[in-house]
Amino acid sequence: MKIILSVFGTRGDVYPLGALGQALRARGHAVRVCAPEAYRAWAAGAGLDFAPVGGDVAALLESSEVGVVRMARALVADLPRHFQPLLEAARGADLILGGGLPVAAPSVAEALGAAYRFAGYCPLAFPSRHHPPPHLFKLRRLRALTGAMWRATEQTYGLAGRGAINRFRKTHGLQPVRRVWAHVIGERPLLAADPALAHLPPDLEQRVVQVGSWAAPPANASALPEELEQFLQEGEPPVYLGFGSMPVPDARRLFEVAADAATATDCRLVLSMPAAARAQVPERDGVLVVSEAPHAALFPRMRAVVHHGGAGTTATAARAGVPQVVVPHMLDQHYWASRVTELGLGPRPIPRRALSGKRLAEALAFATRPPVRRRAAGFASELRDDGVQRALEHLHA
């Protein structure tokens, strides 16, 4: 079969689909990744065909200042760059599998006569009476208002994307859609999250297929940069701090907060920052600043992991058996932060705007206590490692 992996989002949205794509290719399928141009080199490294669709996600995040409303507006402005390129790239496809915010994918699949499935990485991607939408997760205790929150969210999605979707659909003789998010999710979507980390609520168990998390492509996963490997061998396991694809508006302040917390807790530190931000920070003993490193190889060698709460980062840290400190920035990151606390894998999350050296030092002191370290190590054995295989079996069936 010819299978299109249509994904619009950050690395946390793209990389899991790449893991699935490699497995599909190994079974003899023709696989093409349709994603923003920034992921071309990654796709080539993973051995996957690639076609650019959509604008620069990192630029959208920077322009939105990590605000949900601003980000939605930026996405709507970018939508015209999605439909026609995806249509051309997906001609002859048997299946289009969407991830992240694949707003164009279901309509393009319908126009081409291809099957369509959506893959989410968090239960909050799917409307339920048991949880609110991702951007309203902090209001989860207002259970009586959950239905109203989802209705308002669907209306917001409709106002944001319905025009672009229906213009494309009209051009191709398709009926207009009214409920945009329901249209994107489609029938029998997949949840690529481990049941031990994220369980489906009862009203989704028959509607969503939970297959387990998808590990990032394994290319070079066992090799760490020489500078990082040397740093690890020079002393005790350090703490890792990195916020993935989230913007770092003040790199120097983040450096000082992280370094001060590490000093206060007598920890060495690996600090992950974008390459452009590294030039803004000074050198300090016991601190190594890196641009990127394979989490699957690095995290098992850490004392603790401080991160933004992305689905993939949370799962990788849990699989590594190390404590976690979550500093959520937006959307489902608040859900994963709450799960880390509920499961005993780390302390209560630190709101992004409240991050300080003192609060981070307190959180690290809690996370590195022997009971938390034992719980994190034991929890790793509860996680499954067959998410990709289960997804393959389901899609083939």
Task: Walk me through this protein's architecture.
The chain has about 400 residues and is an alpha/beta fold. The chain has 17 helices and twelve strands. Helix content is about 45%, strand content about 15%. It has a seven-stranded parallel β-sheet with strand order 3-2-1-4-5-6-7. A five-stranded parallel β-sheet has the order 10-9-8-11-12, sandwiched between helices. Helix 1 links the parallel strand 1 and strand 2. Helix 1 crosses helix 17 and helix 3 packs across helix 4. It starts with a strand and ends with a helix.
User: Which strand order does the major sheet show?
Assistant: 3-2-1-4-5-6-7
Work out the radius of gyration.
21 Å
Indicate the proportion of strand residues.
5-15%
Q: What oligomerization state is this entry in?
A: single chain
Provide the succession of SSEs. Answer: EHEHEHHHEHEHHEEHEHEHEHEHEHHHH
- The helical percent reads 40-55%
Mean pLDDT figure: 91
Low-confidence stretches: none
| Termini separation | 14 Å
Question: How is the main sheet built?
Answer: 7 strands, parallel
Count of extended strands: 12
Q: Supply the number of helical segments.
A: 17
Shape: globular
By secondary-structure content and strand pairing, the structural class works out as: alpha/beta
Sequence-ordered SSE layout with sheet pairings:
Elements: E1 2-8, H1 11-26, E2 30-35, H2 40-45, E3 49-52, H3 57-64, H4 68-78, H5 83-89, E4 95-100, H6 105-112, E5 115-120, H7 146-171, H8 180-185, E6 190-191, E7 209-210, H9 226-233, E8 239-242, H10 251-264, E9 269-272, H11 275-278, E10 287-290, H12 295-298, E11 304-307, H13 311-320, E12 324-326, H14 333-342, H15 357-367, H16 370-379, H17 387-396
Parallel strand pairs: 1-2, 1-4, 2-3, 4-5, 5-6, 6-7, 8-9, 8-11, 9-10, 11-12
Helix pairs in contact: 1-17, 3-4, 10-15
